[in-house]
Structures are given as C-alpha cells and as structure tokens.
Specification:
The chain is of the alpha+beta class. It contains 26 helices and 28 strands. It has 4 domains: 327 residues, Alpha-Beta Barrel (Anaerobic Ribonucleotide-triphosphate Reductase Large Chain), CATH 3.20.70; 181 residues, no CATH class; 45 residues, no CATH class; 45 residues, no CATH class.
Length: 706
C-alpha cells in the first residue's frame, strides 16, 4: 500500500471558535446514555469514524486503512452528519442510521397505502434520516372516492398527517426531522400546494418544491394555457362529458388505463394561463422562500440510472434526487484545507493533495453502505443494489476568498469547475478500481431488456446495433449512454463498461450547515459564499421551544485576522483590519454570478446541488423572477432563493442589521401590545429569547399562535 502523502498542510487559524465547538459537542460528539462524553476531543471523533469504517476492509488490512482514513479526516474529508454522529455508536444509539438522504416509496392513492407510508416515514425519521415524498400521486380535493362513497379532502390534508408525525418524532428525539414534499406542476391542486405555507404553522416540518417541466416553462414563455389533470377513474373513462388526454404518469397500475406508449388516460380538470401559475409560484417564493423549483425532466434526462429509474422527489435539501425507497449517504471535502499561503500573492491550491484525499474518501464513503442502519428492507435493498453516495465539497466561498478571487468572477467560476471535475474523475477512477477489487454495484451486472421507451430515450442505441428485445448489462447502459458520463475521458468510460463501477452515483453538493459550522470552523456552507463575515445563527436546542442565537465569524475572517495580525484578538467585536475587497458575502453577489458558479459545478455533479441565492429584502420582484428563467436556460436541475422577510420568518442565518431594523409586535392576553426590536432580549415562559425568535415560535404554534 502506498504511503500517506507528505506535503505540508496549509497554515490553520486557532482551534474551533466557541460556537463551532458547541455544535460539535451537541450534535457530533459521542456521549453515553447518561450524557458522559466518550469522544474527548474532535480527533477522538475522527478516530471513532475511521476505526468503524475500516472494519469493512479485509482482515489484515484494517489497521492500515484506519490510518489512511484518519489521515483523510484530519485533512478535510468530512463525512455527512449522520456518519459522524452515528458511526461506531451502536452501543449507545442502536437504532440510528449513517444515511442522510432517503425518498419514500410511492404514495399510492389509497388510505391503506398512505398510512403505510406514514409508518415507513416515521421509522425512517426515527433513525435520523431525512425523507422526501411526492404527493401529486394523490387525487385532487373534491374527487369522488368510490370505496367511501364521498369526496376526498385532497393531498394537502394528507400532508398534514405526515407533518404532525414528523413534529411528534422531532419533539421526542430532540432533533428536527427533515422532509421534502414535491408536487407536479400539472396537478389540479397545484395552487393549494403553492399557497400552503401562507398559513401560520402549517407544513413547517416540510420543505416544498414544485416539479417543473420544460413544456411548462415554454408555455410560460409563449403565454399559453396550461392543463391541470389527474388519472381518470373507471367511471370517468366511460363518461362522454369528461375530457381525456394521455400523459406520462409515475403510476401505471390498474385501474388506470395505459396506452401503447406507457401514458395514462387523464381527466383534464381545468386550464389556466401558465403565466398566472408562474406568477403565483414566484410571489410565494419571493415572500416565503418556497416552494422550490425542481426541473424534473432535466433530473431524469441526466440521471446515470436513466434506464431503470423514474425520479419524482428528492431528499429534504434537494441535492439528492432519488427513486422510490432510494437512499444515499453524504460527505464533503473542506476546500479551505488545501489553500497554501492564503491571502498572499503566493496563494495556491494543493491539487495533488486534494485528489489524494478524494481517492481515500471515496473508499471511505463506499464502506458506509455496509453500515447503513436503514430501518426498511426496500431502502436497504436500494442502497445495496446501486451503492449511491454523494461526495461534495464545502468551504468553496471561503477558499475562493483565501485564494484572492471574488466569488462569481471568471477566475472563481473556472476554479469551481476544476474542483468539481477533479473530484468527479478521481471518484469514478476509484469506483472502477473498487469494482475490480471488491465487485461492482450489483446493478452493473444486471441485464436490462431494451423496450421501445428506452430506445426512444436513447436513439443512438439503434445506430450501435442494439435492437428491441436485446438484453444489455447496466454497466454498458450507464457508461455508454449516460448523458452525464459522456463528457468523461473515453478510456475511463471503456473501463466502466468492462468492469463496472462500485457505485452508480458519486457526487452531490449538500448544504453542510452544522458540519461546516462545527468541524469546518464555520467555513462557507457547501457551494455557497459565506452568508456574512459576522452574523448570528439560529440553532435548535433540545428542550427549548425557541431557537438560540449564536454569534459566529466566517472562517476566512478568522483566518485572515490570525494570519495577518497574529497578536490581535481574532474574536474582537470591532474589525480593526481593513478587509480586502474580495471579502464579499452572499447578499452582495449578483444572482447571475450565483448561477454561474452553480452551473460550473453542476456540469460535473451526477446528482444535484443544494444552492441558495440570497437576495436583499428590497430586491426588485421583476428581477427576482428572471433568476428562475435563467436557471432553466443554463440547464440547472433546480433553483432556490431566499429573501429576508420578517413578516413571514427570519431563517437560520441572520444579520444583526436586519434584526435591529425590524420591530416585532406582541399582543398580550390582556390586550396590551408590546413592541421590541428583533435583536432585543425578551423574557417569556421563564426563559430569555430574542424578540425575533420568540415571535417565530409563537407564530408557529410552539407556545400558541399569535
């Protein structure tokens, strides 16, 4: 086995800032059932994870791999939160999983199946996994239910059940459950879905996203009407007054009628101007930051498993589009750890050291599949069959600043694409090596029958001599016909077609919130720039109904103060140093520059990216709408924005000036009205809160709604 790389590490600022250490202690430090620390230091946490992941290796090699894994962890390879928290913790937390991301089985349109999915979701959330669902498979509000002899209350009423279940499990476990609810843009109840979060306290355990298609965007551009439809029931199929069309649908089982192209007979409920629906989405997103925007046909077109999956939902933050019962583990490389001579004219990125860490990290994450701890057999089967993992990076914005670039400029876009490209190519090279050593993901050797639908999606197969009815291995369909892998070196694709790969998906850029804050010493989240260089972060604390505000510095500010002026107190509240002009934050970056960075990375990311474009409160609405159309034109898989709107909610990351400029009004039981600035402290229910956090807690019903 090759020795460990010996290149020197880049200079690092002092140990974890207080907020970072507190988050590590509360979320990732292993403790006994009684609360006694078992991990005495962060390095103990790394050692526990390395030792556990090395147990998967062959006898006689475990100790050597443990040291390699530990080296990677100490040098910027940071597994996802569920891995850091739960790997090797079975004695103390026997029912937890190392998997961050899952998607529910299909929620079929029957009461029995809906309740079965609630049970499955509850077990998944209890294990610590996030979960996504598509709810547009449920018939619209007012539709007739033959078995009950009445009308249905619609998908959103059933979403309320999932929401209550998640809230109950979160209250019991002290960790907020994470859910994604997706909804087809052509469902008759789409307007109710878009407006759902305007009601205080409703669906607050969910992120919501619309499944947007290219035809809908084109209808918006051309100012055409848009059909809203749902599969017809048996009575409607024979009713001459019902207008029917055949459309693709995720469920083709009886009693639905299916044509020779696999499309389902659907009833058109109504038509509405596409632009009116688009404006409804944009207004809601402008005011409430939801619903999100998933370009679902782009997701499926670029899916490596295009030949065997139809994706209709994602994990809670959107970086993992997954099939029914799909599951994926996560990990992120901290890019700040590879910047040599930061902030100086000699600043460079250690590419060789980076690729060495990526190579080791790929093996580490693959080992997690054997230790998944998923609670449901279909989930375990999916992850074992395809062995997905999602390696990404964090600290991109911080690293760009340390390299004297400005987030969004031409140089930073090129740097972002190179980071994503090197990670992807090294990862897939390692995937082939692991397939040759340990065997490929089982789907690689599975044989698939070529039918008309597959041939229509990849007409080139006919040119290559493949005929209808031929049986082709998954590794060939992936290596030769994946739209994503088409850009890779031909020799690597030939190796994948011959040997297969250990996994079907390798890259995904997650938001890395508390991982970046804790183990990354508040480096910038995922692909983002730093939100601000001095700000407050709202943190969930077990046993408290409101969130706690903690003050943090960006990693690059802390590093700059330490390296440029080592004798000064790096945590001083007033900034005595004049910061370079490239110390920009999220709100100072034009939306177009955010999109350029996202597009540069997406080219080499085979899953997806969690990316938020922060815009100021006074950002013009007409410019805001353009962001989403530009995301579509750039071929992105999704787009998310956030505009600080204190009337709706304040979010996780908050600038002091925003809180100080916002006045909250509380009406007491005796009718008295009390006003307080968002940053002022207020005593309520025996605890001290910031006025902004207390207002949110009251509004969301944690104490009783305002």
């Amino acid at each position: 086995m090759a020795g460990l790389p010996k290149s020197p590490a880049s200079p690092q600022p002092p140990g974890l800032q207080p907020a970072s250490e507190a988050i590590w202690d509360s979320k990732y430090r292993l403790k006994s059932v009684g609360g006694a620390p078992i991990d005495l230091t962060v390095d103990d946490t790394y050692r526990r994870v390395a030792r556990t992941l090395a147990t998967v290796e062959a006898d006689g090699k475990r100790e050597a791999w443990e040291e390699k894994f530990l080296h990677a962890l100490r040098n910027g390879a940071i597994p996802g939160g569920r891995i850091v928290s739960n790997a090797g913790a079975g004695e103390h937390k026997p029912s937890t999983s190392t998997i961050n991301c899952t998607v529910s089985g299909i929620v079929r349109d029957s009461m029995v199946d809906i309740l079965d999915m609630v049970r499955e979701a509850g077990l998944t959330l209890k294990a610590g996994c996030g979960i996504g669902y598509e709810f547009s498979t449920l018939r619209p509000r007012g539709a007739y239910v033959a078995g009950a002899g009445s009308s249905t209350s619609g998908p959103l009423s059933f979403m309320d059940i999932f929401d209550a279940m998640c809230k109950t499990i979160s209250s019991a476990g002290g960790r907020r459950g994470a859910q994604m609810g997706t909804f087809d843009i052509a469902h008759p109840d789409i307007t109710d879905f878009i407006r759902a979060k305007r009601e205080d306290g409703r669906l607050r355990q969910f992120n919501l996203s619309c499944l947007i298609t290219g035809p809908f965007i084109e209808a918006v551009k051309e100012d055409r009407d848009w059909e809203l439809f749902f599969p017809a029931n048996p009575q409607e199929l024979n009713d001459p007054n019902v207008e029917l069309v055949y459309r693709p649908w995720p469920i083709t089982d009886p009693p639905y009628r299916v044509n020779e192209r696999g499309e389902v007979a659907c009833r058109i409920y109504r038509r509405m101007p596409a632009r009116r629906l688009w404006d409804l989405i944009m207004t809601s997103t402008y005011d409430y930051a939801e619903p999100g925007f998933i370009l679902i046909d782009r997701v499926n077109e670029m899916n490596n498993n295009w030949f065997c999956e139809e994706i209709r939902s994602t994990n809670p933050c959107g970086e993992q589009p997954l099939p029914p019962h799909g599951a994926c583990l996560l990990g992120s490389v901290d890019l700040t750890r590879f910047v040599n001579s930061p902030f100086t004219p000699k600043a460079t990125f250690a590419w060789q050291r980076f690729t060495e860490v990526v190579r080791i990290f790929t093996r580490m994450l693959d080992n997690v599949v054997e230790l998944h701890g998923l609670p449901l057999a279909p989930q375990a089967g999916e992850i074992a069959h395809k062995r997905r993992h999602g390696m990404g990076f964090m600290g991109l914005g911080s690293a760009i600043t340390m390299l004297n670039m400005t987030y969004g400029d031409e140089e930073s876009v090129k740097f972002t694409e190179r980071v994503a490209r090197e990670m992807a190519i090294v990862g897939w090279e390692t995937g082939v090596e692991l397939a040759m050593e340990k065997g490929p993901a089982p789907i690689m050797n599975e044989m698939f029958t070529i039918d008309a639908a597959l041939m229509a999606r990849r007409p080139r197969m006919a040119q290559d001599g493949i005929e209808l009815g031929d049986r082709v291995p998954g590794k060939v369909l992936l290596a030769v016909y994946s739209r994503y892998l088409a850009q890779f070196p031909s020799e690597l694709r030939k190796k994948i077609a011959l040997h297969g790969s250990r996994f079907t998906h390798h890259t995904s850029i997650a938001p890395t919130g508390t991982i970046a804050l804790s183990l990354g010493n508040n480096c910038s989240n995922g692909i983002e720039p730093s939100f601000s260089h001095k700000y407050s972060r709202n943190v969930i604390v077990a046993g408290r109904k409101t969130k706690e505000q903690v003050e943090v510095l960006s990693y690059e500010l802390l590093a700059y103060r330490t390296l440029i002026n080592p004798d000064a107190d790096p945590y001083a509240t007033d900034d005595a140093l004049r910061l370079p002009a490239n110390f920009v934050d999220a709100s100072a970056i034009a939306p177009e520059d955010h999109l350029e960075i996202q597009a540069a990375a997406q080219k080499w990311v085979d899953s997806s990216i969690s990316k938020t474009i922060n815009v100021p409160t006074d950002f013009p609405y007409d410019r805001f709408k353009e962001i989403y159309l530009k995301a579509y034109e750039k071929g992105l898989k999704g787009c998310t924005t956030f505009r600080f709107n204190p009337e709706a909610f304040q979010g996780v990351l908050v600038k002091k000036q925003d809180l100080a400029a916002t006045v909250y009004r509380f009406t007491l039981e005796n009718g008295e009205v009390v006003e307080a600035r968002g940053d002022e402290e207020v005593e309520y229910d025996g605890e001290i809160h910031t006025a902004a956090n207390l207002y949110d807690a009251l509004k969301e019903g944690y104490y009783g709604k305002l």
